Amino acid sequence: MRFLLRTFLLMASMGVVSMLMPGIHFDGLLALFFAALTVGLANALLRPVLIFFTLPLVLVSLGLFIIVINAGLLYLAAWIVPGFHLAGFGWALAAAVLISLVSFVLNRLVLGPDRRRR
Q: Structure pTM?
């Protein structure tokens, strides 16, 4: 149940960012839902492995390389999900930053500050 709620929050975040940025586009709500589901699964399954293998870069960049990892996962989701379009990796990088910020705010509003990590 919690994963589904977080998926809908990520879906809302991605929808807001697609309205703000011309380089990210969804063909409809179904594409937006599957993109959020794909990004959520990639964040849960692939992100820890990628962070582990790029740990020296993450440490040297003081954690900023994680934004590049998030952009790569977003770009991967755009490649997998039909109806989800990114204009390029630069747009994926900017979208990853904005999605992270909007998602953080929505998670705090909906889940609260102490229920977010449980």
A: 0.88
All structural domains of the chain with their residue ranges: 2-111
Give the separation between CA 60 and CA 118, rounded to whole angstroms: 29
Residues 113 and 105 sit within 8 Å (Cβ to Cβ): no
CB-based contact 74:95 (threshold 8 Å): yes
How would residue 112 be classed by pLDDT, with cut points 50, 70 and 90? confident
Q: What share of the chain is helix, strand, coil (3-state, %, to 5)?
A: 75, 5, 20
- For 9, counting Cβ atoms within 10 Å of its Cβ (0-12 exposed, 13-18 middle, 19+ buried), the class is buried
- Tell whether the model's pLDDT for residue 116 goes beyond 50: no
In the chain, what is the greatest distance between 2 CA atoms, to the nearest angstrom? Answer: 40
Tally of helices (H runs) and strands (E runs) in the chain? 6, 2
What's the rounded mean pLDDT across residues 46-57?
96
